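User: Run a structure prediction on this.
Assistant: Running it now.
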Amino acid sequence: MGCIGSAWAWLGSNSGQIQIVIAVIALFFAFLGYRKVIKQIEISNDQTKISLDNQALTNKQNQTDLRLHIIGILLETFDKLIALKNELSTIISQQEAFVLVANGRLKQDDISNINKFSTIYRNRLNDFERYQQQLVEVIESVVKNEDMQVKQLNELLKRVYPLLIKIENEKAEQRTKVEKYNLLMSKLDIN
């Protein structure tokens, strides 16, 4: 028991120094814990930055995909418009050729009807020229402005969709008018 008693006495007489040693050891472990917390915060900040960068990259990719999709729609519509214009130009040329060939053998009502169709077709051709110019302007703005935001692209689509619908309607109307024109031409008596 002598050994424990002497150790106890020594601890009692040196308790201040022992408390200081324990406090220094505790401070050391607290500092290690603090460094780990700081490191975890840095890792978290890095992950947040990477996540934000990935989100920005994804948004940019989506924006580019939307832009390319819009350009595809516009070019497809432009092709349809060119086809309609070509069809209409062919009809106008056929009308002019028919009037030249049948000149003098047509009744006044027939000439009036042909002229009425010619006027309608020429007006439509002018409309198509206007639509084509609008499409060219829109396509150029989308192609030139690579940094167009999604909101701007949506505004552009809102502006273009009525034109796209109008072209589709024109396409259907033109078929009907061509059928009427062909019916009129088949009924004309040029003998």
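The radius of gyration is 42 Å.
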